[in-house]
Each structure stands twice: as C-alpha cells, then as structure tokens.
C-alpha cells in the first residue's frame, strides 16, 4: 500500500481546515478507503476534538517519530467508521522537534498502511504548515468568501509549488483543489461576500466543493462528529459529494476537470454586479 497524501491548507487561519480534514477524511473512509487524518497543528491540537476521539489519544506524532511508541499504539481508530484513523499531534513539545527526518520517518510508516493520508495544516506559512505541505501529493486549499482569505489562499499556492517534496524530486506537481467554505448565497447577493465566480477568477484551480455556511457544522464539531457523517445536512452532503468527485477525478486521471459542485437549491453562481466585483478585485490586489 502506498498512500496518497492530501494536505489541507489555507494561509489564513480559522477558515475551516480542521473541519474539512475531518469531514473529507471521513467521507473518503465512508467510500471504503483506509484513511488516516494527521494533525500537523502542534501546540493547538484540535483535530482529535473535532473527530471526537480526544479522550482516547495516548501517544502522538512525536512519540512515533522518536520511537517511544509504535504506529499502531499511536493510531486512534474511529468507532463509527472502522477504516478511519487519527494520528494526533503533540500539545506541548517544541515545534522545532518536528524535523524533516522525524516527519519523513512517520510519513513513510503511514504511507505503508493507508490509502489516503489527510494532513491538517496549521494556519500561516510557518514551520508546521510548510512541513504539512512538503509531503503533499494533493493540496486542498480552503478559503472563505472574503478578501483576506482569498488573498492568503493565493499566496499559499506559491508555496505549494515551490516547497513540496514532489517539486524538489522533479515529480509531477502537487494537484491543487479549491474548497470554499461558509458560503452563503444570500450574503453574496447582498454584496457582503465574494461570489464563487470572483473567487475562481482569482484562484485558478479546480473547484472541489462549496460548503455552505451551516449551523450543523458547529453542532457536529461540538459533538465530536465529522460533518460528513451526517449525510442529511447540507454541509455533510457537500463533503460527501466532494469525496466522490475527488475519487472519480483522480481514478480517471482527468486533470483540472471538476464540474461545478451541486449545492442544494442554490444558483450559487449568481454574483455581485460586475462593478462590485471589479472594485473588490482592485482592493484585493492593491497591497499584494
Ligand atoms: N461550513 C461552515 N459553516 C459554519 N461554520 C463553519 C463551517 N466550516 C467551519 N466552520 C466553523 O469555523 C470555525 C473554524 O473552523 P476550523 O477550526 O475548521 O478552521 P481552521 O482553518 O482549522 O482554523 P485554524 O487556522 O485555527 O486551525 C469553527 O468554529 C467551525 O465550526
Ligand atoms: Mg485547524
């Protein structure tokens, strides 16, 4: 087995990376794949909370890296989806302990055990975020429909291209996928949020999912339940559809070819007026 590594990244913080890692990872597992979600957000560990397994974490990434625990001791298996696992990050250790060699060692072990490894990246472009990007075969770039988020997502794309193991080894580039979260068609109509079209004009990469702003996400998160386990909610459906699109697209090797995702009852391509869009674009790139 040699896993495909998918890093969930954003640039800007608080946009929905951890939510997406848990939900997309669980959705891939529901499709029958063996999946491990890995928390790279050292010190701020919260993927275990969103997955609802925090009480069962005994060992973490650094224990495996240092050989004080083996991988099977550190992996926490989900009780609802048995082919879904979590490798937690350390809450206390010095971030610099997470060296390239330590990460290579753990990632090699994981690659041998899983079909998909989902890496939840910390915000920003610091050490942990670069480490999470380094191993990526695919990058899911998460952004909200607002200017700062889109601009930071645009910046992170440059890092993905330059810093990845794939780039350094001369392999085909990391495949990028856009996930827009917290989208509200009503707020787009009022001009309070960027439209999907505007976002896609700026961030030129295939759109994997549009996840609506939804109270169900907060409820899932508080209950320690990845949003995709609830297939009846709009957000849950969006993440499940995203996993199926991803699998179909990567299975057939069709590059850059996602169709616009379906969002129940929404003509979400409706947008700001042309003038409003141009104004936003100017403001967006004025300081870039
Ligand atoms: N589709 C959504 N609808 C409503 N709330 C959402 C949605 N997606 C995420 N959230 C909420 O946004 C907040 C931030 O989400 P999350 O922790 O996943 O972001 P993050 O990018 O991982 O943050 P950080 O950069 O701090 O790691 C959480 O309270 C989460 O419940
Ligand atoms: Mg997070």
UniProtKB/TrEMBL annotation:
SUPFAM superfamilies: P-loop containing nucleoside triphosphate hydrolases. It holds the Pfam family CbiA. Keywords: ATP-binding, Cell cycle, Cell division, Nucleotide-binding, Septation. The keyword Cell membrane does not apply. Transmembrane segments: none annotated. Residues 6-226 form the CobQ/CobB/MinD/ParA nucleotide binding domain. CDD domains: MinD. InterPro entries: CobQ/CobB/MinD/ParA_Nub-bd_dom, MinD, MinD_FleN, P-loop_NTPase, ParA/MinD_ATPase. The keyword Magnesium does not apply. Interacts with MinC and FtsZ. Belongs to the ParA family. MinD subfamily. PANTHER family: SEPTUM SITE-DETERMINING PROTEIN MIND HOMOLOG, CHLOROPLASTIC (PTHR43384:SF6), SEPTUM SITE-DETERMINING PROTEIN MIND HOMOLOG, CHLOROPLASTIC-RELATED (PTHR43384). This is Septum site-determining protein MinD. The gene is minD.
